Amino acid sequence: MPASPHITSPNKSIFSKTADSPAGDFKPIPGQPIPGSIRSFDLQGPVGRLEALLNQGNPSAPYVTLLCHPHPLGGGTMHNKVVYHTMKVFNGLGWPVLRFNFRGTGLSEGSHDGRAESEDVRAGLDWLAAEYGKPIVAAGFSFGAAMGLKACCSYPGIGSGIRGFAALGLPTHAEGRDYTHPYLSNCAFPKLFLSGNRDQYAPADQLRSITEAAQQPRRLVLIPDTDHFFLGHLEAMQTALGQWLRDTFPAAQQSSNPGNIDSSESAAQ
User: Which tens digits make up the pLDDT trace of 141-186?
Assistant: First the structure.
């Protein structure tokens, strides 16, 4: 999928040294995106336009991130509080982070399906692969974790492929149904399963069984006294996610935040 015409490619360096600059002093090139800034644009999804946001990262970032939001019928959007705080962890490493609204959500075209949203995820993965050509470490919360994992575990590896996935609040039981996510047994990239030990949509014993059935490498983290929405424990969620990223991707140790990611956005309640 070609890169969006609305965004200058972040692959190109946005800094230049000047003759009178001291060593290490860089100045932005006029007209190029500034790391840490936010770009709003549209992805071309399988059923039409998908509203998207890109938190710019450092041009030398070793990875890029796709982040998927929770269930639209429950009010989930790319501005969800858990999604926003998750974005801050990845972008705080200097990694570009792409978020988008699933079909029928916000300004995205189409209507909610419940299963086909995994194809929306693939559209985001295709865009990142075409735009950056770098490895992707993806993440999702709740419904977004389920749709994101389903798409990533079968993704053909365009560009540098999927290198990891952080599943926050992956549902295992909702509305009287159990969700077993059988595709995880053939999903070889590193996986983090991060939930509260009082998650009402992912009972700890069920999530533990699903984690044990998933292919290695994998990690399960249960935050004590925490519900599905990490209410009052968002900082603990961020700490656990950041630790997994540093343990799993050594390049994260050298990454840093290139700019202010809070300048034009706040988290939805």
Answer: 999 999 999 999 999 875 569 999 999 999 999 988 999 999 999 9
Token pair listed for 8: 């200058």
Question: Residues 39-95: pLDDT tens digits?
Answer: 999 999 999 999 999 999 999 999 999 999 999 999 999 999 999 999 999 999 999
Q: What length does the chain have?
A: 269
Q: Rounded to 5 degrees, what are φ and ψ at 123?
A: -60, -40
Q: What DSSP line would sit under 156-201, residue for residue?
A: ---TT-EEEEEEES--SEETTEE---GGGGG--S-EEEEEETT-TT
> Terminus-to-terminus CA distance in the chain, angstroms?
33
Cβ 214 vs Cβ 190: under 8 Å: no
Structure tokens at 15: 């800094």
What's the pLDDT at 34? 56
Higher local confidence (pLDDT), 176 or 101: 101
Give the max Cα distance, the chain.
Answer: 67
In angstroms, the CA 231 to CA 225 distance is: 10
3-state class of 139 per DSSP? strand
- Yes or no: say if 169 and 142 are a contact pair by the CB < 8 Å rule: yes
Closest CA to 49 of 96, 10, 95, 6: 6
3-state secondary structure of 145: helix
Closest CA relative to residue 55, chosen from 64, 46, 42, 47? 64
